[in-house]
Amino acid sequence: MSTEHDDPLQTFIAESRELLLQMEEALLDMESRPNDPETINAIFRAAHTIKGSAGLFGLDHIVAFTHVAESVLDRVRNNEIALDPGLGALLLQAGDHLGQLIELLAAQGSPDATVKAGGQALLEQLEAYLATAHASPATVRAEVPAAHTGQCTVDSPRWHISLRFGPDVLRHGMDPASILRYLATLGEISAIRSITDATPMLAEIDPEACYLGFEIAFASDRAATDIDGAFEFIRDDCLIHLLAPHAPLDDYRRMLEALDKDVGMRDILLALGSLSAAEVAALDAEAPTSEAAVEAEAGGSEPAENSAKETRTAENSLIRVDAGKLDQLINLVGELIIAGAGASMVARNSKLPALIEATTLVSRLVEDVRDSALTLRMVQIGATFNRFRRVVRDVAKEIGKDIALDIRGGDTELDKTVVEKIGDPLTHIVRNSMDHGIEPAEVRLARGKPATGQLRLNAFHESGSIVIEVSDDGGGLNKERILRKAIERGLIGESQVLSDKEIFNLVFEPGFSTAEQVSKLSGRGVGMDVVKRNIMALRGTVDIESVEGVGTTVRIRLPLTLAIIDGFMVGVGNAAYVLPLDMVLECIELPNNLDPRHDSANYLNLRGGVLPFIRLREQFEIDAPPPVRENIVVVQYAGQRAGLVVDRLMGEFQTVIKPLGKVFSQIRGIGGSTILGSGEVALILDIPGLVRQVTRQSQPAAAGSTETCTTGST
Questions:
Q1: Using CA of residue 214, residue 218, residue 222, residue 223, what is the dihedral sign?
Q2: 37 CB-near residues (< 8 Å, 6+ apart)
Q3: Global model pTM greater than 0.70
Q4: Measuring CA to CA, which residue among 482, 541, 480 is closest to residue 509?
Q5: For residue range 668-682, what is the model confidence (pLDDT) as tens digits?
């Protein structure tokens, strides 16, 4: 079967991954709400949907395994089995195994001996919970026999299903026979008639088109939504009528009106046993004209298939788009912005009012398109946070600690690319906090803390960035031990004085560790250099705050998007630079009355506060003479303010971020580049790095000489 991106199999794989995540979250919820029927039903529905969809594609190994898990869940749902921690852990392992099978399917592989052995071991454990079931374990594990899996009995209600496949069903990779195979898992097909009246003459047949239809008498105890779910992947390409048992004749009459009347439908309904001879004769009678019947025709009483479809209205309003297509769209929007900037420059140079007005309108529309395109890639970070519930649960049991996870800010949105790349650094930080941050229960009790440790994941927006915090209420970092290790390794001198923040940031040095015993999970500081490197690759920063005996907070700041930003352009000499607009607070003129004795200190009084600044002319060693009047751009990052002295203020600019090559990636103060409308390249300033540099240089002078600030008051 083809596995192209638009193939239904790819849709099945994507939806199965989502359902497995939902199933895992629900199972974790059961540990705190063990008897919540809605959560149990959610777990059952996830397993049932995966089984049903797998059946449509003939994935018998997935169907067989999922059926056993579904049977156990069905007994839990019927209060025949209690969902205790042991069963919950087993179902989590079953979900992991299903995930393996789905990933193998995505990679076009097949289960090897190890995977099969693991699945068989899980089946044996699951079947132990079915030991008292009416069917034997061998029957349960069989490849889904129709009479058992459909739970059909002699007295099961009789449904009628009318199905006409669309001509493109085969082209979309769907096998009509798979629908019959899946229906057999829900009940019993007591009678069936193939409809081939749509088949054209031999010379006109399209070998890739489908001309088939079915009329089916179906016995099942399942709900309408379960039976209707069999047609999930062909709903948009087919004509489907699902008539409930004992449906009124008006429902059959409406079905006949929608179908071709020349195929002898009345005889087929009679032969299948869906209608009696008297009922078939009554179909030809005049339709009722009572007020009730009129209301029914107007929608007051709809057939079962309509009510089943209503439950999927919200789902049908969403479409899946390949991430690669979104990336291509963002790239094209970026090129459009660059081309629009060039057109605007030509318009300004031409000084034609009509042309300037037209390009201004185009620029505004391009900005709207940019915002809309970027919104398409924004996703909530809550899904990433929720995955750590399983990590925390498993790690806590492995290391013998009782740890509770508190998730906040899950609805905070950021670029999908950032979300995908932040998972590994967060995993390392979380494991470190659990293994070496949070103390064992006996130590916590001796220190007057609750026996259960608290780990918190939090996210929020701040100044155009997203802040992610990983906090624990553990023992905190030992500053003296960090300093001692740093001196031993020659990272700092013995007489060097560091702030608390600088001390804590030493743990990001390669190979730095203060752990007395190396754990197989982590060591606080071990691998933290990799964490910092990965975060900096996303144009982000990471800092640590810690109080010994109280806890530690690792704070990560990331840009909302890696593609396009609003920028503020400045000029120094003949060069142009771009600052992220959301970090710019204000622009002021550089005072010309700075005391020459303290000018080298590079700080001034801004409305009663100390503002350190840096001259970009000196930072980038620009030889051109400075202008008579210079300006300061006040920027802020992570609560710290600094000033950047520039020659010219050139206004707002839509900035398409282009990465620097490896040769230039280590240049201090530069975070990327962009292309101007003229075709020239402008560098994007690394504001976080510059702010840290400015504040670090100015702290000693500002602390020891506050009286000099008054000379440059603004």
A1: positive
A2: 77
A3: no
A4: 482
A5: 788 888 888 788 888
